[in-house]
Specification:
The chain has 120 residues and is of the alpha/beta class. The protein is built from 3 helices and 5 strands. Strand 3, helix 2 and strand 4 form a beta-alpha-beta unit.
C-alpha cells in the first residue's frame, strides 16, 4: 500500500498515492472503484469523524463528499460526527475516533484544535 507513515506511527494516505491509471492502459470505472476501495478501506480501523464537508455552492465538491461518504459506509465502522469548517464543534469529537479530513487545506483549520485536544 502506498501510504506515508509519520514518525509517531500514524498512517496517512494522500491523493497522489491512489494512482488510477496504469501505464499505457486505461482503467474502467469498476477498476478505479475497486482500486480506491482496496487502498482506502483498510485504513478505516475504528469509528470516525468526517470533517470539512463542503457546505457551499460548489456542486462538484458536494458530489465528491457524497462519493467519499458512500465509500466510508462500506466499512464496518460508523461516522460519529460530521461537519463543515463553519459547524465544527471540537466537543463532539471522541478522543478515540479516527479523523477523516475532506481536504488537505483542512489541516490548517482543524489541525491546531485537534492537537490541543490530544486526539491521535
Amino acid at each position: 500500500m502506498d501510504e506515508a507513515q509519520s514518525t509517531n506511527g500514524k498512517k496517512y494516505l494522500y491523493k497522489k498515492d491512489i494512482s488510477i491509471y496504469k501505464k499505457n492502459s486505461k482503467m474502467n470505472l469498476e477498476e478505479i472503484r475497486n482500486l480506491i476501495e482496496e487502498r482506502v478501506l483498510p485504513l478505516i480501523d475504528r469509528d470516525y469523524v468526517f470533517l470539512d464537508l463542503p457546505y457551499h455552492p460548489n456542486v462538484g465538491d458536494t458530489l465528491i463528499a457524497c462519493a467519499a461518504e458512500s465509500l466510508l459506509k462500506k466499512s464496518s465502522y460508523h461516522c460519529l460526527y460530521r461537519c463543515s469548517e463553519y459547524t465544527f464543534d471540537n466537543r463532539k469529537i471522541p478522543s478515540n475516533a479516527l479523523i477523516i479530513l475532506m481536504a488537505e487545506a483542512t489541516l490548517g483549520i482543524f489541525g491546531r484544535t485537534i492537537q490541543s485536544l490530544g486526539i491521535n
